[in-house]
Amino acid sequence: MTRYDVLTFGESMMRLTPPGFLRIEQTRSFDIWVGGTESNTAVGLARLGMNAAWLSRLPATPVGRYISNRIAQYGVDVSNVVWADEDERLGIYFHEKAQAPRASEIIYDRRDSAMSRMSPEDLPDGLFEAGISRMLHVTGITLAISDSARETVREAMRRAKAAGWRVSFDSNYRSKLWSGAAAARGCDLAMSLADVIFCPLGDYRVMFGEAAKETAIESLARNYPQALIIMTMGADGALARAPAGELLRQPAILADEVGRIGGGDAFTAGFLYAWLSFDDLELALKWGVAMSAHKYTIPGDLPLVDREAVAALVAGAAGGGLIR
Questions:
Q1: Per-residue pLDDT reduced to its tens digit, 275-284
Q2: From the candidates 265, 280, 301, 306, which is the catalytic residue?
Q3: pTM to 2 decimal places
Q4: Active site (annotated) includes residue 170
């Protein structure tokens, strides 16, 4: 028995969003949400019944504890969080929601955050050992926020592999953090260490160049032959390419959008849950798209799904618009 099914590692921030569709410059209040791709994934896994943990570095302040407490509230183990001095800061971001033709906008205020200062020396002693977790999950966002965070992610991946854990990596490209070319270079080592690579088709095209979806996933498979490659394509669903060459396709489950942010993290949680639980690639894709569809109906960043509802959607038994 292991302590955790999945340990996720990365930065979570406070999200400030004007109510309704107000612009930031006209609002008098903000709705507060907690968001970070790795903690979103951990919450999704916990909601599906897995033992999930989240590793990060937070300032020892009320706002730092707010982040930790909210993630723990949904069943995620936060006991490995590294607490920085009170004079360090929490990253925040602003989300201005809009409807067409006006585009929604995200503004980061995360430079020099506590997490960006994390170094390999901060990794908890005794955590990356055999029997502690089945899998480590990390993303390209943490690679992008600072040089020290990038080296810490790489060291965590090396230690996890040495301990016999599986490693999952999501490219999770963010144009406000680095260029496509820099992301391709920065993600290369992580992808070479990963057992599972999540790379949306949009990320691939920014990082590696325009390509058809089948060409893109086969290119990743050639460059990282050890990994199971998962490529999400929005409304076109998802592809999976096993190291042995098997290629599977899964249509998307369309949903009325309430909260788009975190949809990809929900897909990752659903996929990893089913893959680790059932060792069935086709079923894992179905759980991924079902989780993502459910997240689209939930405000905020966190996928606060009900496992039974997701399972019903996977089985094709869900009825939209009904009162339960």
A1: 999 999 999 9
A2: 265
A3: 0.96
A4: no
